[in-house]
Amino acid sequence: MRFLIVTGQSGAGKSQAASILEDLGYYCVDNLPPELIEQFTEICLATTGRFEKVALVSDVRAGQSFDGLLDSLNTLDAKGCQYSIVFVEADAEVIMRRYKETRRSHPLSRDGTPLRDAVQKEKQMLSRIRERADYIIDTTSLSTARLRSEIIRLFEGDSPQRAMVVQVVSFGFKYGLPMDADLVFDVRFLPNPYYIADLRAKTGLMPEVRDFVFSYQQTKDYFARLEELLSFSLPLYFDEGKTQLVIAVGCTGGRHRSVAVAREIGAYIAKRGYPTVVNHRDIDRG
After folding, report:
1. Is the dihedral of CA 53, 59, 64, 67 positive or negative?
2. Apex 112 CA angle, 111 and 117, nearest 5
3. Cβ–Cβ contacts within 10 Å for residue 215, how many?
4. Alpha-carbon gap, residue 243 to 181, rounded angstroms
5. What is the gyration radius of the CA atoms in the chain, in angstroms?
6. Chain centre to alpha carbon of residue 31
7. Mean confidence (pLDDT) of the chain
8. pTM over the 0.85 mark
9. Dmax over Cα atoms in the chain, in whole Å?
10. How many Å apart are CA 264 and CA 280, to the nearest integer?
11. Of 75, 73, 183, which Cα lies nearest the Cα of 131?
């Protein structure tokens, strides 16, 4: 089990980091009281295989000092539990600006303490935790997309592209466009198996239909250009922060050409390391 404890300054982006980790498959618990960390860890370890990746966010929102978190970490150390501390921070001026923009109150300023003093006080309270951190992420100049890229770089290792799922869906134009499509490819110009008597009742899932569609040079040339486009654009979608990309491939009825091409696109994308799901929306229509 990979176990992360996310902590750091209020307003620095801990909850945002937790949301990104959740997209990466982590089971996330936000604002867990330090006293419950030990018990929660034991529950996760007892349910073997159910929680492979866990991230806990712990901070001063509970109105307590960080002594409880330090005590819990010492207990985990004594029991031999493996964990990593992710410390999220930002410059004081940036944190103050974020609080003013959102009109939220800092956890340590609810008793009337000025915001600047609350930010400095919390920074001092966190100093011992920061010293023990395995990863320090400074969000001062990070956009959401760049924060996501940094977290993926740190915790997804050699397979960062696995953080973006690509869904390829075939469809028929006469039934309407998929509303959630990011990219739409129209393959109605390709030779149509519908006009071949032996192929009309079959679908693009069958080898003879696929072979018919891809037997034409125009199909091969078109698919080669699709590969170039996808190899160029997929990393850019990933860098932009996409967690799910929907590619729609359409022909007239959604049973022959679009199905065959969508399958080939899905296979190509999967070979590049992206989790890929292929669906055929209209294959049973008509």
Report:
1. positive
2. 105
3. 10
4. 14
5. 25
6. 21
7. 89
8. no
9. 81
10. 13
11. 73
Count of C-beta atoms within a 10 Å radius of residue 74: 10
Cβ–Cβ under 8 Å, residues 266 and 275: no
Give the amino acid at 182. D
In terms of Cβ atoms closer than 10 Å to its own Cβ (0-12, 13-18, 19+), residue 111 is exposed
Contact indicator for 219, 213 with CB cutoff of 8 Å? yes
285's tokens: 């229509």
Q: Amino acid letter at 102?
A: T
Copy the structure tokens of residue 98: 């974020």
What residue spans of 79-156 are helical by DSSP H?
92-102, 115-125, 127-132, 144-155
Please, are residues 248 and 177 in contact by the beta-carbon 8 Å criterion?
yes
105: CB partners within 8 A, 6+ apart? 99
Closest CA to 276 of 177, 157, 179, 164: 164
Question: Residue 281 has which token pair?
Answer: 């929306």
Query: Which one, of 161, 162, 17, lies nearest residue 84 by Cα?
Result: 17
Average pLDDT in the 90-97 region? 93
pLDDT digits (tens, 9 = 90+) for 193-213: 999 999 999 999 999 999 999
Residue 188 neighbours by CB under 8 Å, 6+ apart = 173, 250, 251, 252, 257
* Dihedral angle computed from the Cα positions of residues 45, 47, 48 and 51, in that order, rounded to the nearest 10 degrees: -80
The predicted-structure confidence for 245-256, as pLDDT tens digits, reads as follows 999 999 999 999
